[in-house]
Amino acid sequence: MTALVFLDSEFPAGRVADATIPQLSVLDQGVTRGDGVFESALYTGSVVRKIDAHLARLRVSAATCDLVIPEEAVWRAAINTAIEAFDAVIPCDEAVVKLIATRGNEGNNSGTCWVTVSQAPALGRAQRESGIDVILLDRGYDSTVAERSPWLLMGAKTLSYAVNMAALRHAKKNGADDVIFISSDDIVLEGPTSTVLLAHRDGTAKRLITPTLETGILPGTTQGAIFEAAQAAGWELGYGPLTPAHLMDAEGVWLVSSVRLLTPVNSIDRTTINRDAQLHAELTAMVNAIG
């Protein structure tokens, strides 16, 4: 079951709609061109986790795309309405809240915006403990492209995910679960739907590292929350640039995202890598405490 609520000026709390029947115009540019932005948040324990961060990133993505979207209060009202509709039918431990905004039909002055709430995939929850096998794939551009080519919309969470999904299908065809993209100049970027984290231990000192945003990757809301918690716990923090060799030498590597949360990497390109159980347990505790 999926709860669906459209942001509609005539309905201050959002317009509830039936997700099982057609609702979107075939002329909507979100469909015809992937011209839009979105966010995915986890709803658990009666809380939408990191909702402030998700709404802030949605605003940044929209601004990067020159897309006008409703005010934050309008989104919050629609989110609440969608959650109420979902909980009334199928309450569950975890659900995915998606916020989507498109440019609307060509020639229109306003876009199309909606919120969905649906049950979270069971596989993602299982992989938090089982871990995943990943392969490295060339993203097709170098690590300086964001600075010189702003029209590529690097760092914006757009609806244009065809390449990301193709990368995941390619991974599965090759016996892997997921992908870590690298640039053409051999710099670690991100996963198709996740941020890369790695950790090092030096005696009692612990260091958490993520790729630098200057490569044009999407700023991770979960990565940001983990970094805040890790810093408060006395960990050192670092921001790339990273190469594949850094991944292979780490005490642990994780792909993190808002829905799958903290997922340990078991192998890279069929080579088993370190997986420090204590570091994983500490980071998992930090993730579980995120509001």
Structural class: alpha+beta
Task: Name the CATH homologous superfamily of the largest domain.
Answer: D-amino Acid Aminotransferase, subunit A, domain 2
What is the overall number of helices? 9
**Alpha-carbon distance between the termini?**
25 Å
Low-confidence stretches: none
Rg for CA atoms: 19 Å
How many domains? The number is 2
What's the overall geometry?
globular
Largest sheet: 8 strands, mixed
Query: What is the CATH topology classification name of the largest domain?
Result: D-amino Acid Aminotransferase, Chain A, domain 2
- Total strand count, please? 14
Following the backbone from N to C, one meets helices and strands in this order, namely EEHEEHHEEHEHHEEEHEHEEEH
Proportion of residues in β-strands: 25-35%
Mean pLDDT: 95
CATH class of the largest domain, named Alpha Beta
Based on the coordinates given, report the CATH architecture of the largest domain: Alpha-Beta Barrel
Write structural notes for this entry.
The chain has helices spanning 29-32, 51-64, 72-89, 122-130, 145-148, 162-173, 221-232, 244-249, 277-288; strands at 2-8, 11-18, 36-44, 47-48, 94-102, 112-119, 132-138, 178-182, 195-202, 205-210, 236-239, 252-257, 261-268, 271-272. By secondary structure, it is an alpha+beta fold. It has two domains: 2-120, Aminotransferase class 4, branched-chain amino acid transferase, N-terminal domain (D-amino Acid Aminotransferase, Chain A, domain 1, 2-Layer Sandwich); 125-288, Alpha-Beta Barrel (D-amino Acid Aminotransferase, Chain A, domain 2). Strands 7, 8, 9, 10, 11, 12, 13 and 14 form an eight-stranded mixed sheet that branches. It has a six-stranded antiparallel sheet with strand order 2-1-6-5-3-4. The radius of gyration is 19 Å and the shape is globular. The two termini are 25 Å apart. The mean pLDDT is 95.
